[in-house]
Amino acid sequence: MAYSHEIIMPNADIPFKMFVFEGKDGNYVREKHWHRSIEIFALFEGALEFYVDEVRYSLKPGEFMLVNSNEIHSVFSPRPNWTVVLQIPLATFEKYYTDEKFIYFSRTSRLQNEEVMQLIGDMYHNYVGRTCGYELKVQSQFYELLYILVTKYREMDVAEELIKNNRKLDRLSVITAFMRENYREDISLESLAQTFGYSPTYLSRIFQKYAKTNYKTCLDNIRLEHAVEELVNTRMPIGEIAFENGFANSKAFSKVFRKRYGMLPSIYRKTIR
Question: What's the pLDDT at 9?
C-alpha cells in the first residue's frame, strides 16, 4: 500500500485549514499518507471508515476522528457524507509538547464529542457565512477547541516507540518535501539518496520500514495529486498533463490514476464535468 507525506497550508484568513471533505460524494478512497499537522474529521451525515496505523475505525454521524502528527492513515468514503475537516499546524501546540516537539492526543475519550462537534459545525457555518467579524468569531471558537484538546485529549505518557516513529517520519518528511518541489524532474533513488547523504539501500529501507512503501510509489502519488488538479481544472490533453507532471507518458499516468480512482483519466474528466 502506498503511503505519502502531505503538506498542509492554512486558509488565507485563519491560522488553520478548514474545508468540506473531498470524498463527500462517496465511492472515494484516500490512500495511506501522513503529515505533521493535527487533523480532525467531524462527521455530520453518512459514514466514514479510517485506518490509523493499521487500526480500523468506523465513524458515525456525531463522531469525529482525530489523527495525530505523523500518524499514517487512510480514509474510505463508501457513500455520500457531510464531513468538515480541520487541519491544525503542529506548531500551534508548541507550548504543550511532551518531548522532542511531540504531542499526542488520545482517541479513546468520547466525553467531549458533542461539544467538539458543535464547535466545529459552528466554526464552519460562521466561516462560510462571512458576516462582519467572522474571522474573530471563528478564531475564538478555534481556541476553545484547542483548549478542549490539550485539557481533555492530550496524553502525557507517550510510548518511546511512538516518539521514535515520529522522529523517523519527520526525517522522511524533509525528503518528501524535496520530492514535492521537484516532482516534475527525473528523480531516481540514487540521486535522492545522494542529495540527502544516504546510501540508496538505506534510503530504500527507511521508506519501506516507516512509510511502508518505496520512493517511486511515493513520487507517483505526488505527481498524481498535481495531475488530477490539472485534469479537473484545465482542458489540457491528457498526454500533456502526464508529461508536465513528471510521468514518462500518458500510459504511465493512466496506470497510476486507474489504481487510485478505478477508472481512466479521460472517463474521470467526463464524469466530473
Answer: 45
CA distance 219 to 204: 13
154-181 residues labelled b (16+ CB within 10 A) or e (exposed):
eeeebeeebeebbeebbebbebbeebbe
- CB burial string 76-101: b at 16+ within 10 A, e below: bbeeebebbbbbbbbebbeeeeeeee
CA angle 215, 161, 8 (to 5 degrees): 50
Low-confidence ranges of the chain (pLDDT < 50): 1-9
pLDDT for 109: 59
What is the C-alpha to C-alpha distance for residues 177 and 8, in angstroms, rounded to an integer? 11
271, amino acid identity:
T
Domains delineated in the chain: 4-153 (2.60.120.280), 182-272 (1.10.10.60)
pLDDT at position 2: 36
Contact 84, 77 (CB under 8 A): no
